[in-house]
């Protein structure tokens, strides 16, 4: 084997090792990123269920309660939406009293989309 061909083999092996390392790193990063979203979702869901319990709001299936809570955010960002309209829809659509629907809506907003609290209820948060 000549010095040139030996150098080419070494260069080729180094390239393969670099590619293998890059593939490994990409796999690890991909796996950690795909696990981060469900972990964050579980933490938010658990926080929501805990807040419902703390507010004295009973619910049947945790997964159904979380899905219902997550459905509040798209409703509140619709054009012309108000807290009252969202709470009213929650009450009518889900068999809740207006009081429970209002509390449920507040807990859902505070958990899943807290940035809309102030614009949605500007007069309710004044000291």
Secondary structure: elements and pairs:
Elements: H1 3-54, H2 62-70, H3 72-76, H4 83-94, H5 98-112, H6 117-120
Helix pairs in contact: 1-5, 4-5
Transmembrane segments: 100-121
Organism: Mycobacterium riyadhense
Domain DUF732: 47-114
* Helical content (DSSP H or I, runs of 4+): over 70%
State the end-to-end distance: 85 Å
SS elements, strand count: 0
Radius of gyration: 26 Å
**How many helices?**
6
What's the rounded overall pLDDT mean?
Answer: 75
* SSE series: HHHHHH
- Tell me the fraction of residues in β-strands, as a range: under 5%
Low-confidence stretches: 18-40
Q: Would you kindly provide a written description of the structure presented here, covering whatever features stand out?
A:
- The structure is a single chain.
- This protein is mainly alpha-helical and 127 residues long.
- The chain contains six helices and no strands.
- The protein has a domain at 38-120.
- Helix 1 runs antiparallel to helix 5 (98-112).
- The model is unreliable at 18-40 (pLDDT under 50).
């Amino acid at each position: 084997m000549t010095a040139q061909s030996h150098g080419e083999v070494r260069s080729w092996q180094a390239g393969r090792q670099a590619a293998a390392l890059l593939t490994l790193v990409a796999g690890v990063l991909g796996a950690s990123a795909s696990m981060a979203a469900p972990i964050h979702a579980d933490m938010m869901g658990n926080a929501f269920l805990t807040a419902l319990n703390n507010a004295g709001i009973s619910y049947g299936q945790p997964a159904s309660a979380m899905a219902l809570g997550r459905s509040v955010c798209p409703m509140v960002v619709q054009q012309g939406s108000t807290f009252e309209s969202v709470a009213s829809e929650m009450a009518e659509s889900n068999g809740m009293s207006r009081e429970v629907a209002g509390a449920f809506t507040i807990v859902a907003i505070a958990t899943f989309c807290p940035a809309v609290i102030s614009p949605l209820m500007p007069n309710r948060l004044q000291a």
